[in-house]
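Request: Give me one sample?
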Amino acid sequence: MSAIIQVEDFSFRYRDAGSSALKRLDFQVEEGSFFCIIGANGAGKSTLCNALVGLIPHYFAGRSRGGVSVAGNPVADSTIAELSKTIGLVFQNPFNQLSYTAGTVAEELAYGLGNHGVPRETMHEKVAHVASLMHIETLLDRNPLELSGGQVQRVAFGSAFIMEPRILVLDECTAQLDPLGSEEIFDIVKDLNADGITVVMVDHDMERVARCADRVMVLSKGRVAALGTPQEVFTDPRAGQWGIDLPDYVRLGLGLREAGFDLKGLPLREDQAVRAVRGLIG
């Protein structure tokens, strides 16, 4: 696979900030992969998401060095409108996603399509399809500002997905959803990834990260602390220094090992953990 996102020696400091939010990041994301970004609060995860989609440097003021390229195009030399055809962002706060110009959810979903000149008939078809996927068909005539946080989160995800980008950047996009709603959204995300869409996901649910990610990058104080497969990252002896939780099954494996059991590999999934424990207790 070829890299669809390339970040080279990239640093960024917000205007009037005392220190850089991102410091000399170097990594790439392969096309079609599921790439997860984790780290403690304040590590720079949302700032990086903004840099990937062009909000940095085109919206947030500050000083940057190095470069970010998406599908071969330097973000600094592309407009946000141009980038939106390739990469879409679902914000951590879904209310930041709203246009505040649409009177109904249907109009909100169609907002980006209208900006790109999509024919009205096609627009209606896409809105109906996305509303069905997001389970918001009954909300299409509602005012977005009258919805609950969870409902707005579904609308926000739908407004990004409806543009059919090659890359979806998800910045803790299920924070307002209950566990069932969160899993419903991630079932959709996994299906999109299986269909070839590149997913870049920021999440605090380490079980979900371990289950979904091809590669995991840990940010710590604006720097890349680790980058590798879920097993490589979560079994790294330095993991406790990064301010992240470990998946329950990794903690189980560590506990068993510390208790003197000989485990050849730390379990990262429930089925592996169950087999390990059954083997130990006979």
Notes: Residues 276-282 have pLDDT under 50 and may be disordered. The first helix runs from residue 45 to 53. Residues 131 and 137 are 5 Å apart (CA to CA). The radius of gyration is 20 Å.
